[in-house]
């Protein structure tokens, strides 16, 4: 019987190519995978997976809000937009600290950086100047806050974990206030 090295060589090449892609992984997708693996190993329910994904998504969106708001504090032309950015950055910083503590208590991993789509949005925003920057910043805030409000509203009722339900319910009013302020700002900015 002859032994062939071709299948072994193919397996080694496949393994090596997988290693090369590790450095380009999306930080948000990576922690979602890590949390799902951890949860899967612990033999928990789908609702617990939903809780973990919510925590990661909330952290990711909060980081995006803080990042773009810090940029807006420097680049915005409107003093009102700068003030809004300062308010949002501060309040999301507080929420992010509470979310980090919650994740630590639940043994969940949070992303260390923005996801690929979020990084692209930040790049597109940063490329703008003047009133176009202000409008894009406000538009991006509205988009992110609408999605966050939907998630926080759902999880304030449906989260499996009581601490996650409480977290979602307690931060939902802040997110709604941010959206309201952002919508008012959008109406005030020149088209």
Outline the structure in words:
This protein is globular. The protein is mostly helical and 191 residues long. It is 82% helix and 0% strand. The model is unreliable at 1-23 (pLDDT under 50). It has one domain (25-188): Ferritin (Up-down Bundle).
Outline of the structure:
This protein has 191 residues and is mainly α.
The largest sheet, given as strand count, sense and whether it forms a barrel, is: none
| Low-confidence sequence ranges | 1-23
What is the total number of structural domains?
Answer: 1
Distance between the termini: 77 Å
The CATH top-level class label: Mainly Alpha
Please name the CATH architecture: Up-down Bundle
Outline: globular
CATH-wise, what's the superfamily?
A: Ferritin, core subunit, four-helix bundle
Q: What is the residue-averaged pLDDT?
A: 85
Radius of gyration: 21 Å
SSE blueprint:
Blueprint: H1 6-21, H2 27-41, H3 46-75, H4 79-106, H5 116-126, H6 130-158, H7 162-188
Domain DUF4142: 50-185
Organism: Hymenobacter yonginensis
Pfam family, one: DUF4142
